[in-house]
Amino acid sequence: MTQERAARTRATLIRTAAVEFDRHGYAGTSLSRISKAAGLSTGALTFHFERKEDLADAVIRRAGQLVGVTPGEPAPVKAGREPLGQIGDLVSDLMRSIHEYVEVRSSIRLELDRPDAGVTWSAHWFATVRRLAQQARLSGELPGPLSPEQVEMLVAHFVYGTGYWIRGRQARVLEAPREECGRMWASLWEGFLDSSRPLGAPTVQVDIK
Asked: Does the structure show a pLDDT above 70 at 13?
């Protein structure tokens, strides 16, 4: 098998596995199901991925590549923005990636199905949210009644809740303009912050382009 052909086969298996994991969950997806859906033999699959766990990890790593981040490294944020604005923009970008990429949607389900797994999708971006929330607290940007932990909780609920809501409704939801998701997040995020902001204080704007 040539190197180029092997790379194509591996990419096909990862993409197919993402679809199957998203539809059936980790426990409901077997290697034989994935190989059949990919049009390959089980032997061809196990040549690249010996275990289902290895294939699931590969899907999550691919999801990280699609959103432009690597585990252990900071997620990309827009320069020139205050920490809370960066959080809002980051989550808006994550929302769009959930709509666009089955690998991302699959990774959300895999993380819920495998809570003790060593490779998780949230490792690609959650540390950045935590760091920015703490920076906002130290700089005084975060309104007094709110804590970094509350910011983390809101982000986690919205991101994972969106992934859960889309599943089973994909034909309808994915046809909707992706900007709607960004507007929904922007409204929630700005309202969350403004509810605890002193009267007359500037609001945080979220980029939903």
From this structure: yes
Tally of residues, the chain: 209
- Would you state the structure tokens that stand for residue 140, as one six-digit string? 């005084």
Do residues 186 and 180 touch, judged by C-beta distance below 8 A?
Answer: no
H-helix segments, the chain: 3-24, 31-38, 42-48, 52-66, 83-100, 102-113, 126-139, 148-166, 170-173, 179-194
Q: What is the pTM of this model?
A: 0.80
Q: Which two tokens stand for residue 100?
A: 């666009």
CB atoms within 10 A of CB 97: 19
DSSP-derived secondary structure letter, 205? P
- pLDDT tens digits, 36-60: 999 999 999 999 999 999 999 999 9
How far is Cα 175 from Cα 163, in angstroms, rounded to an integer? 15
Q: What are the residues whose beta carbons fall under 8 Å from the beta carbon of 167, sequence distance 6 or more?
A: 22, 105, 109
DSSP code of 199? T
